[in-house]
Amino acid sequence: MKNCRLLNLSLALLLLSACQKEEPEFLLPNELRTRSQVEAFFQNAYAKDILLLGVDSLNVEGVDYCRFSFEDGRELNVKKELIGGVRVDSSGWTATLAFETGSQLPAYILDDTIFLDSIKVNPFGTAPLSALVAATMPVRGRFGVKVLGKGEQGISLGHVYETFANVHQIPVLGLYPNFQNTVELSFLSEEGKVRARRTIRLTAGDVPGRFTVNLIQNELPPDDDGIFFVTDIKRGFDQRGQLRWAYTGDAKQAHNRLRNGNMVVSGQAGSVSYHSANFFEVSMLGEEIQRYDVPNLMHHEIHEMPNGNFLVGTNSAPFTNNRWDGELEEDAIIEMDRVTGEIVKTWDLNLILDNQRPRADGSTNDDWLHLNAIFYDEQDHSIVFSGRHQSLVAKIGYEEGDIRWLLAHPAGWGGELLPFVLHPVNAQGASIDTGTEDFLPYFLHHPTKTPNGNIMLFDNGNFRNFYDNPDVEEASYSRAVEYKIDPEGRTVEKVWEFNYDKAIFNEATGSVQYLSENNHRVIGFMNGTAKTPKVVELDEADNILFEININPWSDYYRCEKRDLYEGM
Questions:
Q1: What percent of the chain has pLDDT over 90?
Q2: Helix H or strand E segment including 172
Q3: Where are the domains of the chain?
Q4: Which of 284, 366, 527, 558 would you label with 247, given CA atoms 20 to 30 Å apart?
Q5: Predicted pLDDT at 475
Q6: Per-residue pLDDT for 9 more than 90?
Q7: Sign (positive or negative) of CA dihedral 98, 104, 107, 113
Q8: For all residues of the chain together, what is the average pLDDT?
Q9: What pLDDT, on a 0 to 100 scale, did the predictor assign at position 24?
């Protein structure tokens, strides 16, 4: 009985205690209950440029709340008794939270105003189809730009910049000449969400010089915004044949796009023929970044290495443009330091190859090699180059200049070099008779490496089969061709070619390019005839999707298709 009384007493005490506890306070999702919590949250959002989208009111069980919506998708609920109000600054993009105590907190709020400081068309006087827009925004963000196409079939060109900041210098590329261009600016969050838009009108002036095109065929998708860049005229045009970029500075050729989006061009001053005393890096707005002097002049090629340095085609002796003066020419490669301009390495190809090897009459004793293309292969730390007058593509080691392989006819190579000449085979590995099958390139240009490791080049075809039949006078056609090379077995297989039904012969210049994004190929028949320069783009099945003729009877070096904003 005593135990039962004790148990009943304990239960009574527990019930009394439970009745005396307060009911738990109701909380909304994402509710901040104290002013210190609210201050900490908004201070962090302000520091990280997290934008407030809006504020509305709600009443839950008789309690008034402020509900804050943010750009990153979060919502925040705060009792109105903690916040006196929210005031939006008339200048835009800023708001102020006022507390009942009189204290205040700043916040960023979404607005639709883009503040522009200045707009300059052709800002450096050498890129007339460009502009530079300066903007200062109250909140950090990114900018996107789009130049709308001209007419119903015009090609729009645009880009989204990565810079996340308050102050912006926005390059605008791809303006049409002699036209009032419509340009759309978009102010974006760091994740790319559009915050505000603004449309401006920019009128670009004339581009001096002749540019006539005959667009023969265009089956490219309407959203293909690639630009075809032509070296010598320093121009870029879209798939409609419309000029969209030009460099009008004092330069001979626009050579290659760099990883940072800039371009290298060869200079005019102190130059001889197509040999230049210097080259320089320019932005796509036409601003000169840095100039580099080449002691024995440069020619044909400037190639950017992974370390930023340049491989440059030059001469082993001072060049005077006297092809019969006994001074060897177009036979050396140098590496130039990107920062200092100093020559850090030289490859004299007279010491690597045989400059006495027999060759066709289209070359001279001085210009025995005619080095016309170079690239660095980081896969095996080597250099690949072409010698037009030797009908040769060669790979040498970067460090020692040791020969890895020679893509050329075996005739005329001495005993030390002959073992490095690649042996032609078919897909089954059987030997090919180059005297009966049109296999090897002659007087070639522009070897490049494809993503699968093959070598693709423009085979001009001069003196085709010279080494098998020295009496041959001229080739009948030019082509683009791709070779698969086995460096270990020292064999070479021809895996692809396009010869335009053997209807075109370009005795000089030319280019071929592989587009990794769609497996297309762009071929430039760049030597001038009645039907060239001609640029064609092929699909994977070698169907011609695009064909255009430019300034007939003009001689240009290369044409390559690039994104106008590439690297920017």
A1: 81
A2: strand 165-173
A3: 32-108, 116-204, 213-424+440-468+480-491+506-562
A4: 527
A5: 66
A6: no
A7: positive
A8: 92
A9: 45
pLDDT at residue 67 tops 80? yes
**CA pair distance 69, 425, nearest whole angstrom:** 69
Return the structure tokens found at 454. Answer: 């093959």
Task: Please check the confidence at residue 405 and state whether its pLDDT lies above 50.
Answer: yes
CATH of domain 116-204: 2.60.40.3100
**How high is the pLDDT of residue 23?**
41
Tokens of 119: 């707009």
- Give the 3-state secondary structure of 215-284: EEEECCCCCCCCEEEECCCCEEECCCCCEEEECCCCEEEEEEECCCCCEEEEECCCCECCEEEEEEEECC
CA distances from 456 to 184, 234, 372 (A): 40, 24, 15
Residue 265, C-beta contacts closer than 8 angstroms, at least 6 positions apart: 234, 247, 249, 251, 252, 253, 254, 255, 279, 280, 282
CA 535 to chain centre: 20
Rounded to whole angstroms, how far apart are CA atoms 189 and 172? 20
Q: How many Cβ atoms are within 10 Å of 293's Cβ, its own excluded?
A: 15
Distance CA 381, CA 13 (A): 86
Tell me the one-letter amino acid at 153: Q
pLDDT tens digits, residue range 212-266? 999 999 999 999 999 999 999 999 999 999 999 999 999 999 999 999 999 999 9
408-457 pLDDT per residue, tens: 999 999 999 999 999 999 999 999 999 889 999 999 999 999 999 999 99
Residues pairing with 266 in the sheet: 279
CA proximity to 229, closest of 495, 508, 558, 499: 558
Question: Contact, 265 vs 234, CB < 8 A?
Answer: yes
Q: Which long-range contacts (CB under 8 A, 24 or more apart) does 331-337 make?
A: 331/355, 331/368, 331/369, 331/371, 332/296, 332/371, 333/371, 333/374, 333/383, 333/385, 334/294, 335/305, 335/309, 335/310, 335/311, 336/292, 336/294, 336/309, 336/310, 336/312, 337/309
Reported as a single tens digit per residue, the pLDDT across 378-397 is 999 999 999 999 999 999 99
Question: In whole angstroms, what is the distance from residue 353 CA to residue 402 CA?
Answer: 10
Q: Residue for token digits 């020679």?
A: 406
Which pair of tokens denotes residue 427? 């897909």
- Tracing tokens 């994004």 back to the chain, one arrives at 517
C-alpha–C-alpha distance, residues 503 and 475, integer Å: 11
Identify whether 533 is preceded by a cis peptide bond (ω within 30 of 0): yes
Q: What is the pLDDT of residue 69?
A: 94
What value does the mean pLDDT take over residues 460-474? 84
213-424+440-468+480-491+506-562: CATH architecture: 6 Propeller (2.120)
Q: What is the pLDDT of residue 99?
A: 84
Percentage of the chain modeled with pLDDT above 70: 95
SS3 168: strand
pLDDT number for residue 91 = 78
Region 40-68 average pLDDT: 91
Token pair belonging to 278 = 């210097």
Query: Which residue type does 341 have?
Result: G
Tell me, rounded to whole angstroms, the distance of Cα 391 from its chain centroid. Answer: 31
Q: Under a CB-based contact definition with an 8 Å cutoff, are residues 230 and 238 in contact?
A: no
